[in-house]
Amino acid sequence: MTKLGFGLTFLTVVACSLFPGGCDRREEQQGLEAAAKAELAAVIQERNRLQEQVGKLAKDWAAKEKTAEITMNNLKYLLAEETEKVVELQDRNEKLQATIDELQKKLGIEAEEVKDEFKEIREPDVIFVPTPQDVVDKMLELAEVKKEDLVYDLGCGDGRIVVTAAKRFGCKAKGYDIDPNRVRESLKNVARNNVGHLVTIEQKDIFTLDLSKANVITLYLLPELNVRLIPQLEKLKPGSRIVSHDFSMEGVKPDKVVTITSDRDTYEHTVYLWTVPLKKIPEAEPAPVLDDLSEE
User: Which end of the chain is more exposed for a tag (fewer CB within 10 A), N or C?
Assistant: First the structure.
């Protein structure tokens, strides 16, 4: 302790001895000052804590704001990218629609040309009843169609047999029908299936055709019409195959006869196969006529 500090302490003791009340007030003042300092320190501590929290919140907010900014930029980029795709798709759609319109217009023109080209020759011999597709498949399988074959469908209807032959086996095929409506329908079927390079459709009377170039003949006619075709069928090359849906050929023995229950109509269908040369069934000799027995 310095001399000055010791002197002040001594004077304070003397003063308190002479004036005890003053010393009490001083101690009280000192106590109040100490309490005020303590409270001030607590307030300062609380302020510092609050400032620290505010700083942390500000930092967190800045980070979140940055994240939000990044997210927003990403969303803007994605939106721009998707907008570009939409514009591209719309452009493609417009081009496709223009192509569709052009093709429809072209088909309409071609349909009119076809309509003008085909005239009715005579009444068809049979009404058109389409062969179920699974029966068509069975007919071609039974005929053992190969790529190098030429298939003729006599009475081609909507063209499904010649179209199937071309698509499944890659062979050439010709469809003939006397009905102009069926010819138009067949031509549309050929175009729809993109087999025009293999399939030909013609409006013809089948009983006037030369069938000798065909390897396979398909039929869905009435029995008497099958019989009427025999002279033409006999001119086919040896080994040529003839298949008929549901109807036989009277007087000619088939090589195979199979039945199939169609999944399309649930009915049972019969398919006949003949191979050239045709196997004629001999006509039965008439029974002898006996004269009346005479009396002896």
Answer: C
Determine which helix (DSSP H) or strand (DSSP E) holds 258, and give its type and residue range.
strand 256-261
Please indicate, yes or no, whether residues 110 and 137 belong to a single structural domain of this protein.
Answer: no
> Within this chain, do residues 49 and 183 fall inside the same structural domain, yes or no?
no
Angstrom distances, CA of residue 18 to CA of 4, 13, 22, 29, 185: 21, 9, 9, 19, 138
| Residues spanned by the domain of 187 | 133-280
Number of domains the chain contains: 2
Give a yes or no: residue 16 inside a domain.
Answer: no
Q: What is the pLDDT of residues 97-124, one digit of tens each?
A: 888 777 867 666 555 555 555 566 678 8
CATH of the domain at 230: 3.40.50.150
For residues 204 and 180, the answer to whether their CB atoms sit within 8 Å is no
Tens digits of residue pLDDT in 60-81: 787 887 787 777 777 777 778 8
CA 64 to CA 52: how far, in whole Å? Answer: 18
SS3 82: helix
